[in-house]
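Tutorial handout. Part one gives the primary structure; part two gives the three-dimensional structure as tokens.
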Amino acid sequence: MTVTRKQEAAPATPEPLDVLIIGAGLSGVGAARHLQKHCPDKRWAMVDARDAIGGTWDLFRYPGVRSDSDMYTLGYNFMPWQERKAIAVGSDILRYIQRAADEGQIKEKLHLGLRVVKANWVSSEALWHVTLSRSSDGAQTIQCTKFLYFCSGYYSYSQAHQPEFKGQGDFAGRIIHPQFWPKDLDYSGKRVVVIGSGATAVTLVPEMAKTAAHVTMLQRSPTYVLSRPSVDAIAQVLARVLPSRWAYALTRWKNVLMGMYFYSVSQRKPAKVKAYLLDLVRKEMGEQYDVDQHFSPNYGPWDQRVCVVPDSDLFAQIKAGRATIVTDTIERFSKEGIVLTRGQELSADIIVTATGLKLNALGDVAISKDGVAYAPGQSIAYKGLMLSNLPNAALTFGYINASWTLRADLTAEYVCRLLNHMDRHAYRVVVPKADASIATQAFMSLSSGYVQRAQAHLPKQGDRAPWRVLPSYLADWIALRWSRLADGVLTFES
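Part two.
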């Protein structure tokens, strides 16, 4: 059985759940599988507002959609990635998530088409009262749960960042945002301009260039790009000589440690890493290409995410003349395309605005405690997975410098350990208590526009443990798997 399309929304259960998982994407399915393994007696359910599992990997349908993280780290720690390509396309990732759901037989506890509107913590009952709205007709029910587990990602599915450009209404062609890609769009033989320089643009341009007349990537400023093979040669060798789980685990740790090393060096020696990355681009594009203009950002490596170019596909399309990078700002849209600040006009039949995501916190669920609104933007993250003074709740938030699922797995294991600890000691409530002496800073250290626009709405991190959000999987692996739960910051109540 593969759960892919809408199921009938189930009514609220007559008694409280132990755990309600919000979100049926990569994080939610993983959380469910960890609960099954580590907390087999827990009564749990999972809801998602959409009519399919998969989250991001079902939502995004733009050409070439893929992960820029390798699947040996983006995959779950309990289920080896078995496909050949390590840099996988979206449809393969979606099938992987569906297989995890199938193997876990979670259908009966998965309720699609149910949006969580609000959640109120009732102290006298030690329960969350969660208001669910059925997507098809708006009918609402109340579900009570002892623990609320947010696996809803970090951006809005219904909205994207779409700046209004001067003269936008004058353009005679179609304007598309990648998050809402239309099924009927035929771009073969068309002139396309993709606005943006992040991971989405770097993915779209080489894929669309295969059939479009020409694709121009219009960027206000460059982004670091790094070519990687789509197939991990070492992983393939290990898979031939070792059992699949051993090969997967070894490849996973290899890639984790390589990523940690690259990030560490980038932080300690940004100028040298920048020179190294630009030199790699020059080797791809040749000395005649203006690498400094189009591939040299004005920030250090990993101040924003480094974009992966699998098998040099972007470079190949540029060298073949099917794609072009233009670095300039937009003066206005015109009937024929886009007029740039320096006077050049880019002709286009289709304009794709790969202008970014609209970040949110806790899936835009209205949170309250005993009827008083709780503001995530004023909270401090405890170990990157709970929020200050918010009882019986956890959230999954991945790494900015590594694969999302690495922290998602650790978070799920920690939540299970926490729930089992509460059972052993007959605790009903757990809440991380922050004191006024903790200095705060941004939860995410990236300088990317989509992060900066959302800072007021995101939780903060503190200036010391356990309120720091660690950028290291190895440090988290130790802290979340082996640290004491009764650390004096987590407060337990019977």
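Part three, for discussion. The chain has a mean pLDDT of 92. The CA atoms of residues 152 and 481 lie 23 Å apart.
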